[in-house]
Fold this sequence. Notes:
- This protein is mostly beta strands.
- The protein contains no helices and 17 strands.
- The chain has strands spanning 6-14, 24-33, 39-42, 52-56, 59-66, 72-79, 87-88, 93-96, 101-104, 106-107, 114-120, 125-127, 134-137, 143-151, 156-166, 171-172, 191-192.
- The strands form 6 sheets. A 4-stranded mixed β-sheet has the order 8-15-14-11, with no helix packed on it. A 3-stranded antiparallel β-sheet has the order 1-2-4, with no helix packed on it. The chain has a 3-stranded antiparallel β-sheet with strand order 3-5-6, with no helix packed on it.
- β12 (125-127) and β13 form a beta hairpin.
- The protein is rod-shaped and about 120 Å long.
Amino acid sequence: IDADVPQNIFVETIAVTCNGESDGMIRINQVAGGTAPYLFSFDGQGFVDSEEWQNLSAGNHSLIVQDADGCTHEQAIMITEPAPMQVNIGEDMVIELGQSESVEVYSNIDLSNIAEVIWSPAEEVTCLDDNCMEVLLNPIVTTTYQVMVVDSFGCIAQDELQLKVKKNRGVFIPNVFTPNEDGINDLFFIQGIESVKSVKKFIIMDRWGEK
């Protein structure tokens, strides 16, 4: 091995913080062999005396060192990144008016690494655990819910589902009754399921369509 030519580039790398981001870094610590001073070409760019490159994406990068005698050495350097964050809260659903639905967040993120779970719209969401990974949804109209999960590095993953509300009012109004005090069907009254709080308007018509 000819020690008069560059043989190796010792570098420090910083991985990409979040999958798909471009915040990796390469810093040169030492060049083995060759004659100083050195120039460097990064990913096919021109030779410069810079020894640090920032805002790098994940993958293989090419680094060429050129010494004072014009001798060169090329080296591949890998910048890594974490796996993509995954969040799933299930498929769209149809519910009856007044019905609540329990929804759980499934993720490949370890619970200890989750910094924040944000639901929107938040007004109709009730958290069932400390970090809101399981919630109770109680919409009164068809609503699309979104959840955003943020990990300890600030990486974000999100998902959404729609709860379609069927407005079957759950009210029963009889069309006949017999108020003859025989104890059978003497009273006329409106019945409703638990979610019905009131009947705003009720009109009795005769057989000819008059009030």
